[in-house]
């Protein structure tokens, strides 16, 4: 399903804003650091501001599921987009040319190792990011809204 892009398209920094613009202009294809990666745009509602916040994220297709990783580059704190989900799990996902409403659902801890293994097989650099932090990195399924 195609829908209007949430506005404003705030990527939080100039780099993300450029990736978001390129993603939207090329219906999900981007170059640079994300060339050849499975990339989506996740729009959350800011927990304090209430404003829409869009973040480019690498994702994993796990069967019919779409999974994202709250890595934050291995930083000690969860990324802002993940903290926003605690207040408002209803999100917008842009995947290639399609835009859809979704519900963000954290995965059970029992699934973490299996999902991590699949992601690291696809994107080995994720092992390095994961090793940078002592926190448990949340994994989130983006379920299309009914």
Description:
- The chain has helices at 14-25, 80-87, 112-122, 125-131; strands at 39-45, 52-62, 65-69, 90-95, 98-106, 139-144.
- The chain has a six-stranded antiparallel beta barrel.
- It has one domain (14-144): Pnp Oxidase, Chain A, CATH 2.30.110.10.
- It is of the alpha+beta class and 146 residues long.
In short:
This protein is of the alpha+beta class.
Write the layout of secondary structure elements.
Elements: H1 14-25, E1 39-45, E2 52-62, E3 65-69, H2 80-87, E4 90-95, E5 98-106, H3 112-122, H4 125-131, E6 139-144
Beta-strand share of residues: 25-35%
Helix content: 25-40%
CATH superfamily: Electron Transport, Fmn-binding Protein, Chain A
CATH architecture tag: Roll
- Tally the helices: what do you get? 4
**Strands of the biggest beta sheet: in what spatial order?**
1-2-3-6-5-4
CATH topology: Pnp Oxidase, Chain A
Shape: globular
- Reading the helices and strands in chain order gives HEEEHEEHHE
Provide the number of structural domains: 1
Structural class by sheet pairing and helices: alpha+beta
Count of extended strands = 6
Report the C-alpha radius of gyration, rounded: 14 Å
Distance N terminus to C terminus?
12 Å
- The average pLDDT score comes to 89
Write out key terms for the chains shown:
single chain, 146 residues, alpha+beta, Pnp Oxidase, Chain A, six-stranded antiparallel barrel, 6 strands, globular, disordered N terminus
């Amino acid at each position: 399903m195609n829908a209007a892009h949430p506005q404003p398209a705030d990527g939080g920094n100039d780099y993300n804003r450029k990736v978001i613009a390129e993603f939207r202009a090329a219906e999900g294809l981007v170059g640079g650091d994300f060339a050849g990666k499975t990339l989506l745009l996740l729009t959350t509602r800011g927990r304090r501001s209430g404003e829409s916040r869009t973040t480019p994220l690498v994702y994993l297709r796990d069967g019919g599921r779409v999974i994202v990783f709250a890595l934050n580059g291995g930083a000690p704190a969860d990324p802002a987009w993940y903290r926003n989900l605690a207040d408002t799990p209803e999100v917008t996902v842009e995947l290639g040319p399609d835009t859809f409403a979704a519900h963000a659902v954290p995965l059970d801890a029992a699934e973490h190792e299996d999902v991590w293994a699949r992601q690291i097989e696809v994107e080995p650099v994720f092992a390095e990011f994961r090793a940078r932090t002592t926190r448990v990195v949340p994994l989130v399924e983006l379920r299309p809204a009914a």
